[in-house]
Fold:
Amino acid sequence: MLYHLLFPLSDQISVFNVFRYITFRSLGAAITALVLSLLLGPIFIQWLKRLQMGQVVRAEGPESHLKKKGTPTMGGVLILFALLLSTLLWVDLTNKGVWIVIFVATTYGILGFVDDLKKVVYKNSKGVSAKQKLLVQFIVAGVAAWLFQDFTAVNSELRVPFFKNFVIDLGWMYIPFSMLVIVGASNAVNLTDGLDGLAIGPVITTAGTFLLLAYVAGHSKIAQYLEIPYIAGAGELSVFAAAMAAAGLGFLWFNTHPAQVFMGDVGSLALGGAIGSLAVITKNEILLLIVGGVFVMEALSVMIQVASFKLRGKRVFKMAPIHHHFELKGWAEPKVIVRFWIISILLAILALSTLKLR
Ligand code: 57M
Structure:
């Protein structure tokens, strides 16, 4: 909004010329989101406590989790508030791509909010059924994938990291594929959110990586130099990604071990959906497997565990997702969390290196 209010005045007040720069507006969005989440965090947590929005902890989880019972959840409302307000304040509101990503994050956030309410308020620990959740997620992802089609160069071609000239054209299959990317990312973040700060850490590194990927994809000269698809308008997504990373950082201040608040499905589903959408709109669908490698590892561990249990009647891990496996191996919770953060940072660096390595 500030861009539309102040940039037109730059003829009279030249300093307002800075609003034309995506870098400046990304920095503004990040500072706004960080300040909002840090300032509103304590008030929001108090409010959740008063409303008794305490987490219901399932008995079959690791012993160490039982003491977490009652921790306020649905902190994702705070993240989304800071993220969306900051984005709307600093982004070019005529950019369609940003609105599509906001549409996914908001609808997935509402889905998660309903799930959390059912679990926390109605004490129904199953929440919204998995089938209902998936149906809504695929419908929203389908609308987003369809809308992405006329967003400049979002086309059916897939690029494989490290192999610049190797392009796979999925044709009509690109729509269901991109839906799978968005729904998969959302559920992978959801599964990862099982230890204090375990999900929000990789969300911050992933958002920071997409800040850079969106900027270069939307910059014709840099995209040409790096031999990556030029996607006109993708640069504005840097503002959204910057706000997302900063809102996550502010939330981590309260979610770090021992957590004062959990993000809830309202946070994990929304943030995962936003990450999947950013990957599709910047044409980094396969690169997301590297950037979001921690989320992939967590989701894969569940698939392997359930498949092995069904086919062989035996577990591969002591418990899935894999963060519980390390807990049951005797790793302290902070050790598991910080080691997963280290992996996430290394994967982000590796992903960015693919821009140069060919
Ligand atoms: C999402 N939710 C956490 C919190 C957070 C198929 C199966 C693998 C599904 C999976 C599952 O139910 N996942 C749901 C993970 C839960 O966190 C809440 O959920 C929100 C995110 N969606 O924001 O509101 C618990 O995680 C802990 N937590 C923290 N700190 C945080 O910052 O400590 C969360 C955030 C919270 C808290 O204890 O209550 C969760 O783990 O449920 N199921 C599982 O993950 C279960 N695994 C399992 O059943 N494995 C089986 C088979 C089916 C694969 C096996 O290995 O044999 C384990 N997790 C739990 N209980 N808590 C075991 C059962």
